[in-house]
Structures are given as C-alpha cells and as structure tokens.
Amino acid sequence: FTPEYKGVVSVSFEEDEEGNLCLIAYPLHNEPENMENKDPSADCEPKSKMIKWGNKKTSSLLLENDNYSKDRARQSTKENKSKSYNGAEAQQQAEVLCYSLDQKQVKHNPWSLKCHQQHLQRMKENSKHRNQYKFILSENLTWRHAVPCVLDLKMGTRQHGDDASEEKKANQIRKCQQSTSASIGVRLCGMQVYQSDSGQLMFMNKYHGRKLSLPGFKEALFQFFHDGQRLRRELLSPVLRKLREMQETLESCESYRFYS
C-alpha cells in the first residue's frame, strides 16, 4: 500500500468555458527548473487529453443524520427568506456522515472536496505571480476499486519536526495530548468505508478522529473492517502482514527519522 512515484507534471490554474476554476495537468517534457514561466501548452499534449479537476459543487452528498434533517425542516421557512445557507458547506463541516452511491455520477467525499477547493483558492490568489506549478505525480492506489475503503492513521507520539516553530510545536503537542496519539501512539485521521447493506459510503474526518477515546478508536477500526453485514476477518491477517513488513523496512533505515 505504498504508492509509486510517477514523475512530475506541470499544472496550471485556469477557468473553463463555464467559469469553473480548474487544475489542468500536462506531461512535463522539459526540465522542471525550466518550466516556471513557460506556457504549459507549448510542449505538452492538448488539454482534451489532460486530467481536469474543477471546483463544481456536488449535490449528491446526503447527510444521514436525523437531527440535521429535523433542523433543516424547521429552517425551511427561514431559507425562503434568506439563501445564505450553504448545504455543501454543511456537508463538508460534518465530522461523520454517509453519502449515497445510487446516482451514476462522479462523487468526491466532502473532506477531499473541501481541501481541494481551499487549494484552488490559494492557487487563484497566487496565479497572478505564477502561471504554472510543478506537482509530484504518485500512483492512485484506489483506481482498481469502484468503492475504495480507506483508513488514514497518524502514527507516532511526536508530530513536529526539529525545524518547527514554537507555535507549531505547541500546537502539535496539544493535538497529541488531547487524542489517542499520547496513549497508544496512533490516531484516526480519516476513514471511508463502504456499507454493502445500505449502498452508502461512511466517512469520518480528522476532527472526529481527534476526539475519539481509546474505546472509540477501537470501534472505528471495527467499523472499517465491517461491510455493514459482517466483520471481514479474512482481511485482518493480510493487513497485519503488510504492516509488519512496513515496520521492518522503516526500522532498517538508519539515516531517516519519520515524524507523523
């Protein structure tokens, strides 16, 4: 489960015909250091062949929360007077939610969508100074799976590097002390798991992971290996074997120290 390095791509920040902000990736045919102020399309493939990821809002994400639904019903009259409520942002802010896969369209989990939109905004603010960015291209380990289940764990009891500022150091120490990182050296940073009984993906973000107690962390691991109908025990041994292999590899590296 380690992605392979696939090289470097040239990425430009552009708007499409509908005014949507997009990232356009081009193969990098020139040396990376010579690409800073060069027109990306000059030595690259046509845009139609490139990866394009915009910031269109997805309307298919469904919050599975009774309290949320009731609150929304009570607020319906207020919404007719004011259109300030943003449903997509509410989905992005939710720490635990499910979204349906019954509609045949591209889905993004809400946390990824939020992070992507924030990154687009930062690139937009800097685009007047740069027209092109270099990105490392890594393998997408989930591409073979229609509904990938992903568990993101932050390992270690220390998360700040030696070069961190005092403010960042204090912030990282506080996060460790207030989570399972302090007690067991690991905490949940994100999870997406498919529930075969309901046809939905359940999603947890890093803010929920920070709040988990030790029993809550164990329950989250149980949920990850549970498909909605049964606990998939046949996956436990292969995962443990891969983890042991990774541990042995890291322990054999004498010149590196990995902070989570």
Task: Compose a concise summary of this entry.
The protein has about 260 residues and is α+β, with helices and mostly antiparallel strands.
Describe the structure.
This protein has 260 residues and is α+β, with helices and mostly antiparallel strands. The protein is built from nine helices and eight strands. It has three domains: 5-57 and 108-138, no CATH class; 66-100, no CATH class; 150-251, Inositol polyphosphate kinase (D-amino Acid Aminotransferase, Chain A, domain 1, 2-Layer Sandwich), CATH 3.30.470. The strands form two sheets. Strands 3-2-1-5 form a four-stranded antiparallel beta sheet. Strands 4-8-7-6 form a four-stranded antiparallel beta sheet. The longest helix has 17 residues, at 110-126. 16% of the residues are buried.
Mind sketching the topology for me?
Blueprint: E1 5-15, E2 21-27, E3 52-54, H1 66-74, H2 76-81, H3 87-93, E4 96-100, H4 110-126, E5 133-138, E6 150-155, H5 166-177, H6 180-184, E7 186-195, E8 200-204, H7 206-211, H8 214-224, H9 236-251
Antiparallel strand pairs: 1-2, 1-5, 2-3, 4-8, 6-7, 7-8
Helix pairs in contact: 3-4
EC number: 2.7.-.-
GO cellular component, one term: cytoplasm
Keywords: Kinase, Transferase
